[in-house]
């Protein structure tokens, strides 16, 4: 038995060494391929294909050794790419861990992304911190409790009160308080934890100068809600049907904001003191003076790269029949 245990440990050690060597060789190869430039200075002409290649390598390494893959994006952060600060409000519910886990696997494929997660709670939780730690994505974890007077009641429909207002504002305050150490070319995006994101969306928004916009699928009672772009490439309106009179009738997932622009408007934030559906318009209206300042993305707003999906509420009625809940002693 002792000999068997020794050999098992030896095989495990050799396996770890082999994977480490594989990781080092992979890093060397990525360095030569991903950051190799030409003498004309056009090293980023093929950035999309290089990023796609790097994603493939990360996926392969992750499949063999998750621990090795965790730090790959950290190792390959580069000043050549602006950072995308993704703000995600979240709150405790049965599907919270599942949704954050799913979202983390998308963000793990995006270089130079910093995930700001804000919990609607009096303190941060080990559940959310665990998801973020395992993701390998650079992150900041905050908490901001929604005031009781504006918090949704358990049986309230989701549209009765705006959710995530206090949490998004907390993230904006964090960015402003850390502005001195941030790259002003960075971009800020508000990503809810129940939406579905194509990784190509993040390369579309990365070079935002003011406010960039694009279509969102499955929102506003439509297959797709999108900006209307004129032949000269400027945004002239929206195809929205629900409350089309809004100044900017778009979903929270439909725009990104330049960090520099946000910092130039230190009071710009969300508020609960406006009508339903006006959160996006309220923020954007504090940053730009009209449609002409918006930057259409995703092939002039003809391509859907994000969907406003919703996870079905799980049916847990059988838990009432148990003397001890099924999740006792286990994190779900």
UniProtKB/TrEMBL annotation:
<keyword id="KW-1133">Transmembrane helix</keyword>
<feature type="binding site">
    <location>
        <position position="194"/>
    </location>
    <ligand>
        <name>Mn(2+)</name>
    </ligand>
</feature>
<keyword id="KW-0464">Manganese</keyword>
<comment type="similarity">
    <text>Belongs to the glycosyltransferase 43 family.</text>
</comment>
<dbReference type="InterPro" id="IPR005027">
    <property type="entry name" value="Glyco_trans_43"/>
</dbReference>
<keyword id="KW-0812">Transmembrane</keyword>
<dbReference type="GO" id="GO:0005975">
    <property type="term" value="P:carbohydrate metabolic process"/>
</dbReference>
<dbReference type="Pfam" id="PF03360">
    <property type="entry name" value="Glyco_transf_43"/>
</dbReference>
<protein>
    <recommendedName>
        <fullName>Galactosylgalactosylxylosylprotein 3-beta-glucuronosyltransferase</fullName>
        <ecNumber>2.4.1.135</ecNumber>
    </recommendedName>
</protein>
<feature type="active site" description="Proton donor/acceptor">
    <location>
        <position position="280"/>
    </location>
</feature>
<feature type="binding site">
    <location>
        <position position="120"/>
    </location>
    <ligand>
        <name>UDP-alpha-D-glucuronate</name>
    </ligand>
</feature>
<dbReference type="GO" id="GO:0015018">
    <property type="term" value="F:galactosylgalactosylxylosylprotein 3-beta-glucuronosyltransferase activity"/>
</dbReference>
<dbReference type="GO" id="GO:0046872">
    <property type="term" value="F:metal ion binding"/>
</dbReference>
<keyword id="KW-0479">Metal-binding</keyword>
<dbReference type="GO" id="GO:0000139">
    <property type="term" value="C:Golgi membrane"/>
</dbReference>
<comment type="pathway">
    <text>Protein modification; protein glycosylation.</text>
</comment>
<feature type="glycosylation site" description="N-linked (GlcNAc...) asparagine">
    <location>
        <position position="300"/>
    </location>
</feature>
<feature type="transmembrane region" description="Helical">
    <location>
        <begin position="17"/>
        <end position="35"/>
    </location>
</feature>
<feature type="binding site">
    <location>
        <begin position="308"/>
        <end position="310"/>
    </location>
    <ligand>
        <name>UDP-alpha-D-glucuronate</name>
    </ligand>
</feature>
<keyword id="KW-0333">Golgi apparatus</keyword>
<keyword id="KW-0325">Glycoprotein</keyword>
<dbReference type="InterPro" id="IPR029044">
    <property type="entry name" value="Nucleotide-diphossugar_trans"/>
</dbReference>
<feature type="binding site">
    <location>
        <begin position="89"/>
        <end position="91"/>
    </location>
    <ligand>
        <name>UDP-alpha-D-glucuronate</name>
    </ligand>
</feature>
<keyword id="KW-0472">Membrane</keyword>
<feature type="site" description="Interaction with galactose moiety of substrate glycoprotein">
    <location>
        <position position="225"/>
    </location>
</feature>
<dbReference type="GO" id="GO:0050650">
    <property type="term" value="P:chondroitin sulfate proteoglycan biosynthetic process"/>
</dbReference>
<feature type="site" description="Interaction with galactose moiety of substrate glycoprotein">
    <location>
        <position position="318"/>
    </location>
</feature>
<keyword id="KW-0808">Transferase</keyword>
<feature type="binding site">
    <location>
        <begin position="192"/>
        <end position="194"/>
    </location>
    <ligand>
        <name>UDP-alpha-D-glucuronate</name>
    </ligand>
</feature>
<keyword id="KW-0735">Signal-anchor</keyword>
<feature type="binding site">
    <location>
        <position position="168"/>
    </location>
    <ligand>
        <name>UDP-alpha-D-glucuronate</name>
    </ligand>
</feature>
<feature type="binding site">
    <location>
        <position position="163"/>
    </location>
    <ligand>
        <name>UDP-alpha-D-glucuronate</name>
    </ligand>
</feature>
């Amino acid at each position: 038995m002792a000999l068997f245990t020794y050999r098992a440990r030896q095989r495990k050690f050799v396996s770890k060494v082999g994977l480490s060597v594989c990781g080092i060789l992979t890093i060397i190869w990525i360095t030569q391929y991903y950051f190799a430039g030409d003498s004309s200075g056009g090293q980023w002409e093929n950035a999309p294909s290089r990023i796609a290649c790097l994603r493939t390598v990360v996926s392969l390494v992750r499949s063999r050794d998750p621990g090795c893959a965790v730090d790959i994006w950290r190792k390959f952060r580069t000043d050549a790419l602006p950072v995308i600060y993704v703000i995600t409000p979240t709150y405790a519910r049965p599907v919270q861990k599942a949704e954050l886990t799913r979202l983390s696997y998308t963000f793990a494929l995006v270089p130079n992304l910093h995930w700001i997660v804000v919990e609607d709670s009096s303190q941060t939780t080990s559940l959310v911190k665990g998801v973020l730690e395992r993701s390998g994505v650079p992150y900041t974890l905050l908490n901001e409790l929604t005031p009781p007077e504006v918090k949704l009641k358990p049986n309230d429909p989701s549209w009765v009160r705006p959710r995530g207002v206090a949490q998004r504002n907390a993230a904006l305050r964090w960015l402003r308080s850390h502005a001195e150490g941030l790259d002003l070319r960075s971009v800020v995006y508000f990503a809810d934890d129940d939406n579905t994101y194509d990784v190509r969306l993040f390369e579309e928004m990365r070079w935002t100068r003011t406010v960039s916009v694009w279509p969102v699928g499955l929102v506003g009672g439509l297959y797709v809600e999108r900006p209307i772009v004129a032949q000269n490439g400027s945004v002239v309106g929206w195809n929205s049907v629900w409350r089309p009179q809004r100044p900017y009738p778009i979903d929270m997932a439909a725009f990104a904001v330049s960090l520099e622009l946000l910092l130039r408007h230190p009071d710009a934030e969300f508020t609960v003191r406006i009508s339903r559906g006006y959160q996006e318009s309220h923020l954007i209206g504090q940053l730009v003076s009209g449609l002409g300042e918006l930057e259409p993305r995703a092939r002039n707003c003809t391509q859907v790269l994000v969907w406003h999906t919703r996870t079905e509420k799980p049916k847990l009625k059988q838990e009432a029949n148990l003397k001890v809940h099924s999740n006792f002693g286990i994190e779900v």
